[in-house]
Design a protein that fits this description.
Order of helices and strands: EEEEEEEEHEEEHEE
Number of strands: 13
Helix content: under 10%
Radius of gyration: 16 Å
Number of helices: 2
Mean pLDDT: 93
Strand order of the largest sheet: 3-8-9-12-13
Largest sheet: 5 strands, mixed
Structural class: mainly beta
Strand content: 35-45%
Low-confidence stretches: none
Distance between the termini: 31 Å
């Protein structure tokens, strides 16, 4: 639940987060060292920089969360950003990206897609796997807490 501008409780249907990121980190502002992490110790896994742990954020109920960061849904990481949000909140589904994220402009609309340069995906985030990036993925959690990942359209 959330609140409208008049202070009335409202149902939150969806939230989109559009930031730079890695599989386990959302970069809010690198210049001022503002990060959100999947690490319960409150430090980024990549550099050990102090960060806000996703599990310490206020618990939310959402129909959908869109994590629009590079590798926020990287399927090689069981503690990626998408999964950590799902585990620490009541969210029906989390959509995120496995691979570097880019956008296509159509008129005044920008549509997310796999980026043309996947260098960081292949050199930093593969954890020994040999595969191509999947693109858009969706994570869901059933009533027993089991998480399932669905690979979305191949053109994503």
């Amino acid at each position: 639940m959330g609140y409208d501008s008049d202070g009335n409780k409202i149902k939150i249907e969806g939230v989109s987060l559009l930031f730079h990121g890695h599989p386990t980190t959302i970069i809010i502002n690198a210049e001022t060292k503002q990060y959100v992490t999947t690490n319960p110790e409150g430090k980024t896994y990549e550099s050990g920089t102090t960060a806000l742990y996703i599990g310490s954020l206020n618990y939310k109920t959402l129909l959908e969360l869109n994590v629009l960061t590079c590798n926020g849904g990287n399927i090689n990481y069981t503690n990626n950003t998408a999964i950590t949000f799902l585990e620490n909140n009541n969210i029906n589904k989390v959509t995120a990206w496995d691979g570097e994220l880019g956008y296509t402009k159509k008129g005044s609309t920008y549509t997310p897609r796999l980026g043309g340069n996947q260098w960081s995906f292949f050199t930093k985030w593969m954890k020994g796997a040999i595969r191509l990036p999947v693109g858009e993925v969706t994570y869901t959690k059933n009533s027993k807490g089991y998480i399932t990942v669905y690979y979305n359209s191949p053109e994503s």
